[in-house]
Amino acid sequence: MSDNSSPAERTAADAIDPSVPSTGDARKQHLMGCLGRFFYPVELATLATYVVASERTTALESVSDDERTRVAIRLHHVHIPELVERDLVEYDPESRMAIAASDSTAAPERSRWSNVP
Which of 1, 9, 12, 106 is 20 to 30 A (C-alpha) from 94? Predict the structure, then answer.
């Protein structure tokens, strides 16, 4: 689909897989893509680093501490809770560990919290 697609075309494409966040929210798309890379729960700061690198298409090492912190705060307070409500992400706010829900399209085959001490 091109960037010039109509809202109806975008809506139709989004309806193909309702478990994936809409194309209107790129950060959630990056977040789900990054979570799909992990077979185990991932710490929020690490996840934020992957999200920033994914959004900028750059190396993980080039993500600054300020960027990581800013994105981690936004993920913790906005994006992750929205995806938890949609049963796409499991998140423990105390440990700040996240993982794609097992029935999410981003979730690799794994037993979700079994390897967490």
Answer: 106
